Here is the input.
Amino acid sequence: MDSTGDLDRLSALPDDLLHLILTFVGDATDVTRTAVLSRRWRRLWIQARHLAFLDTRVIGGTVPCRFAGFVDWVLTRRGGAAMASLDIDMSRSPHAPETRVNAWLRYAARNATRSFRLRLPHRDTAPRTIELPGQARMASIWMDLSRNRLRLPTAAAAAEYEALTELALYGVWFDDEEAAGGGLSLGDFVSSCCPRLRKLVLRPRTLLQLVIRAEALQELHIFSAWDLRKLDVTAPNLRVLTLNFCFDQRFSGDGEHSNQGVVRITSQRLEEITMQNRPRCRRPELLIQDLTSVRRLHGLHLDMHGKYCRDRDASLWLLENCHGVEHVDITLDHLEARHVNAHKLIDLTSEGAEPFANVSSMVVRACNFPGHYLVASMSALLLRCPHLRSLCIQIIESVRKNRSSRKCFCDDHHTCRGHQNIFLEYLKSVKITSFAGADEELDLVCLLFKGSNSINSMTLVAEISRIDYLRRKIQEEEHGRETIDHLLMKIPYTDQGH
Here is the structure.
């Protein structure tokens, strides 16, 4: 068939199929170029349901104007046509004036029904004020404002985000003084304007407090809220809580802090908690109403010195208070310190310490350990997990290959180096990654086999960056010394695994 026939056939496709094709195209630059395909396609792109403006695709000279102008041109041509999603990513473009950005938000609020995404460029300029419209139709909002201020609707505006189920805000400045002057705080906005909100993700530039009352909220994730001092959430259906690197309160010289942050959570369905703090930061006061439903803990960190754990953050508190937890993801670290208050040291092996009875699977990252402390620290933790079935250990090579002359307090306590025997009668599967055959790693393998006669699979994975270490071990055979393979075969009970 000739080219005219091909064009006729293309023009004859039903509208639903044509819009489906435009959905797969997505990128606004390519969508507008479909106008050259045929007479019918000339204005078809105006009705596209999905548009993504990516500044990496828009090059000056090939479109009506530069990126911001191109966005304006396309949205103006579309008029009030409804659309499912609008994505504007200008992370590499010169910053558009706030009036322009605010106009895009108003357009999305009126016309987008499914999702709106906005990423502004990172620039060292004075923060601009981005205004969230009073009403919107979309179900999902994702914005990276790159250190700009977000002005929420005023209380008098009767804001409505009835359809909103997911809200993600990154790099946002929240102005408490502005909220006090009549604008809504973030907590007020979520509580009163978003009745269907199920997932809230925040990585703010500044956020001093957050108070939420939300019936539908199921997931709350907050990252890098360094200055956060108060988190108060009442959400009966909250299932997942993430607090990573929040409440950045450093210890004073005596280990105390005069202004402790507070986390108050009221939920009857909380299942998963992820909580990470910076080293040497004090944990906030935790007032979590019901922990009986928690089954998974992620991001935990224990500062281990043999059998002793320094009580520094929320990790040990969560392990000891979430009695039903089944899976734990944890990092064991050895942070040097000359002096430590005795009441801040917890002996994990002390008589009467309650076991983490329901923990059946665990992922452990062990880092920065002097060799003689690794096995002692691992055994102290495993001693509290008698029903463990699956264990994955990642050996992270210490960044301090040559330890400084500064001594750690535990160097003077020989009890920190010794370890107790463990008994893991249910342990079935073990995986150790970044294995290099160092003496302490071989001792760890020996500890596990001696502590369990039920292991049916042990996998040792060598890290590529440590192959040279393995080669040196293999070369030892040439000099009459035993290789890693020989040493592993001599460990008791290794014939039970593979």
Q: What stands out?
A: The longest helix spans residues 98-111. Residues 59-65, 251-258, 399-405, 494-498 have pLDDT under 50 and may be disordered. The longest strand covers residues 140-151. Residues 88 and 436 are 47 Å apart (CA to CA).
